[in-house]
Design goal:
Blueprint: E1 5-10, E2 19-21, E3 37-42, E4 45-56, H1 59-62, E5 70-71, H2 80-92, H3 97-103, H4 107-110, E6 119-124, H5 126-129, H6 140-150, E7 154-155, H7 156-161, H8 166-174, E8 178-183, H9 208-216, E9 223-229, H10 235-248, E10 252-256, H11 264-273, E11 277-281, H12 287-298, E12 302-307, E13 319-325, H13 342-353, E14 356-361, H14 366-373, E15 378-382, E16 393-398, E17 404-405, E18 408-409, H15 410-421, E19 425-429, E20 438-441, E21 458-460, E22 465-467, E23 474-476, E24 489-492, H16 496-506, E25 511-515, H17 525-534, E26 539-543, E27 556-561, H18 565-568, H19 575-587, E28 598-603, H20 609-616, H21 619-633, E29 640-648, H22 651-668, E30 675-688, E31 691-700, H23 703-718, H24 721-725, E32 727-732
Parallel strand pairs: 9-14, 9-15, 10-12, 10-13, 11-12, 13-14, 16-28, 19-26, 19-27, 25-26, 27-28
Antiparallel strand pairs: 1-2, 1-4, 3-4, 3-5, 6-7, 6-8, 17-18, 20-24, 21-22, 22-23, 29-31, 29-32, 30-31
Bound molecules: adenosine-5'-diphosphate and zinc ion (2 copies).
Length: 738
Amino acid sequence: MTAGFLYRVAVPSPLRRLFDYLPPEDAGEEPLQPGCRVLVPFGQRRLVGLVVASAPVEDRAVARLRPVAAVLDDRPLMPAALFQVCLWAADYYQHPPGEALMSALPVLLRKGEPPATPAEYWQLSVHGRGLAENALARAPRQQELLGLLRQGPLAREAIRAAGIDSAILRALRDKKLIEPRTQAQEGNDKPVEPPAGSLKESPLTLYPGQQDVLDAIELHGYGAYLLQGETGSGKTEVYLQVIEKILRYGRQALVLIPEISLTPQTLGRFRRRFQCRIAVLHSGLSQRQRLEAWQAARTGKAGIVIGTRSAVFTPLSAPGAIIVDEEHDASYKQQEGFRYSARDVAVMRAHRERIPVILGSATPALETLNNADRGRYRHLRLDRRPDGTGQPRWQLVDIRHLPMTTGLSAPLIESIGEELKAGNQVLVFLNRRGYAPVLMCHDCGWTALCPRCDRRMTSHRAENRLRCHHCEYAAAIPVRCPECRSPSLQFLGQGTERGEALLSSLFPDTRVLRIDRDTTRRKDAMTDMVAEVGTGEPCILVGTQILAKGHHFPDVTLVAILDIDAGLFSSDFRATERLGQTIIQVAGRAGRGHKAGRVLLQSHHCDHPLIDRLTAEGYDSFARSLLAERALNGMPPFRNLALLRGEHGNAADAEGLLARARELAEAQHPPSTGIQYLGPLPSPLEKKAGRYRYQLSIICDSRPLLQRLLRDLCTTLEGDKLARQVRWSVDVDPIDTL
Ligand code: ADP
Ligand code: ZN
Ligand code: ZN
């Protein structure tokens, strides 16, 4: 046998390499193109893999290679540029290529289904073909259908169009005269529908600042833009008009939004504006719906694709622009498995596909600001709100020595009362769900800990449970102290559930709505609550950072921010950046209507320089000082960071593996001014769900060096015995160092 060539196939396996296969026995002359799926034997199993390349095969290699079991696609699932981006991401984030590529595909494709939903066809069965012409003369409709099918198979729609209903189809099928036939229908790569009349509503007239931004965005060719503008400054309107332009010349837009802000409100705005089909990709879809949306994007039937993180890998037949809204949002970084940043992949993708990418935010990530400073991104700004309302007014309440009512200071309670009396709405931000974060015995000092994480459990009183917010562990709230049997158990601190109870008792005539992960679990809960707030009746909203995103509450005139102090002293080097972003985002909810807004921030640390910067000078000044600090400490974005994590039921093993990893890495890449190793150290959350967690930080001046180091290290670790017993992972550009 002369195979001539072999396939390098990415197979979903934890190994960071490709696997070689011969073409199938009955293969044609032409090799499959990269990006086609094949079914391959793998150990005892058969797996769906993706052809990454073909290469000439040496005769003596032929004997030890197995052939592909079946070819699943005759053309690539994604355009070559996107396929290359996926491979780049697998390499950059040090993830096994097979697993990375597969996670870029809808689940049904990973399982080997054809990309297009099969159209339903009917044809004559063997039995039907043998039937005499007039055998069914007494059932004229059935006779008619048989006659139609004698000329060849027909699609279900064509049969319906001929006026034949399903009862007749069923009758013939039951007689075994006809049978369904499915045929995968590939969409043709026609560009998007003609642009004319593509708008349902006319666009707003841009104010001059917006027009300048729109004009600055070059639509032909690659360009990365940071669009910075506070909440309400009109960024979304700019996105809409960019999309309108690219649709007009037959291109598609990919819009990424954070998980939590994919609300009916957001979608509604796109749907009201555009005539074209909009494919929506989010975690709430069924696998079938997801595949259909993906296919609509791939074939160009959808002019706009809107989705969360993983949508960044959606193929487009005629890509025109990528928009990443709220680019600073942590949900763009996948925190397990393939740990990619959808924002950074989006920029790389835009580069490879030669299209513009727009990163929008009121509070850009320090990475993004730094990229703008270095000239890699063009920095565009929107400086005012189109509705003319001004910046909210800040009011700092120093709560040292102040008497407090379960976490609420007197000035705060008074301000809430004033606003309600004036007929306004109030938003209270408390970034912790549940009733209270600590349950303590007044007599012996015992506190309720999660047995699997060694962290305090949060009381959820409505359901009478203690819940660990780090794992799934839950238990009933005890009546007596398990240590000393005392009944004097106390709830310390407050979460949203307690805030809700307290505010309801302080303002008994006012509706209090709690908005957090617990109260919005039901599918339409959020929509219902947003609608209730939308009536404009005075009310108090109490909630976590869910409140900070995507929603517009025009009648809220006071935003109260509680309990931010922990964020100022966290061991995570990104905690202060995130705190500042959250505060600004929450504050941005105030005074979005015609009424002026104010933000009241109560803290023990009102004089903290970062709080002062943030409230007196704004986010930019705050971000500048954080950047200066990062530069001084040699942290990202000025140097490149990767974390190697190890996890095991036994702490010594977890630590041992990382110590070994450091040894291996140092042997090849000794520490120097350009390479720094830190650890292994216990993770800030040292024990989680019964496993001990350690981490080794690797910091390099040079990105290519870090890449090389990690590649070498992973290859070595894959062959290491201890590494097979300890769960380990690499996180490149981690955003969470817990
Ligand atoms: P962002 O995305 O920055 O939060 P939006 O685009 O949602 O801002 O704009 C905030 C509000 O202002 C929206 O209600 C929007 O309809 C309105 N708006 C935006 N641009 C204009 C404009 N040029 N003229 C009038 N209203 C505008
Ligand atoms: Zn006790
Ligand atoms: Zn736990």
